[in-house]
Amino acid sequence: MQENTEASEAAETRRTELIAVRDGAQASLASAKAELAGLLTEQNALERSLAKGDGDKAINRIKVRPGYERALAAALGDDADATIGGDAGRRWLGGTPAMDALADNALIHYVDAPQELAARLSHVRVVEQDDGAALTPGERLVTLSGQLRRWDGFATDGDGATTAELLVRANRLAELNALVPPAEAALAEQAEALAQMTDAIGAAQDAVRAAAAATGLPPSATPAAWKTMCAMAM
């Protein structure tokens, strides 16, 4: 009788522990589902907002390092909407940078763009703050916040805000495209683990019933009842 009671207690303890673990897993799964849903919602919204009308526009063929979006937008201004190549209209036909060597902080180092933009991007320096350094003829200087100063003394603040926003959105979409697949895989793994845990709880419940039957008590009997019965039998 003592052995049966101890087996019943052990089976019940195991079942209770599994249920506690399952409850925690369910909470984690719900959180993971909500996180993935948020990523997918943002991803879909960005894909709609970035749906390209004219694929030949420079803005549609540029990738820029995160954090440099406003600098690039200031450097290009409205020219970001010009097409790459073509026979008419505002277009980029390419050119040769008129300098012996690129500056270490030339904007082209931070941008993946068509070759037609190389000459412009090679003549633009990017800095955190404009310290007033002299520029050679043809050079421009832009800050990360979007200020621009040209070699001829022209300066402007905040040009290309719309272009900058498009570039920021494109970078965020690329980030989401990298985040979603592993999030989906992790969610699938959690769901599978939860299913296995549910099976384990079922097996533990069967063990509880079997142990209870051996003691002569109903499966719903408490461990205290098992101990009482065992003491009476001794």
Descriptive account of the structure:
This protein is α/β, with parallel strands linked by helices and 234 residues long. It contains 5 helices and 8 strands; from the N terminus they run H-E-H-E-E-E-H-E-E-E-E-H-H. The chain has helices spanning 2-49, 69-76, 118-122, 161-215, 223-233; strands at residues 63-64, 83-84, 91-92, 111-112, 124-127, 140-143, 147-150, 155-157. Strands 5-6-7-8 form a 4-stranded mixed beta sheet. It has a two-stranded antiparallel ribbon with strand order 1-4. A two-stranded parallel ribbon has the order 2-3. Strand 7 (147-150) and strand 8 form a beta hairpin. Helix 1 (2-49) packs antiparallel against helix 4 (161-215) and helix 1 packs antiparallel against helix 5 (223-233). The relative contact order is 0.18. The model is unreliable at 229-234 (pLDDT under 50).
Please give a quick description of this structure.
The protein is of the alpha/beta class and 234 residues long.
Q: In terms of structural class, how would the helical and strand content be classed? A: alpha/beta
Which range best describes the helical content: under 10%, 10-25%, 25-40%, 40-55%, 55-70% or over 70%? 40-55%
The oligomerization state is single chain
Mean pLDDT, as a whole number? 84
**Beta strand %:** 5-15%
Major beta sheet, specifics? 4 strands, mixed
- Strand arrangement in the largest pleated sheet: 5-6-7-8
- Tally of individual helices: 5
Distance between the termini: 9 Å
Low-confidence stretches: 229-234
- Outline: rod-shaped
The secondary-structure element order is: HEHEEEHEEEEHH
- Radius of gyration in whole Å, from Cα? 33 Å
**Number of DSSP-assigned strands:** 8
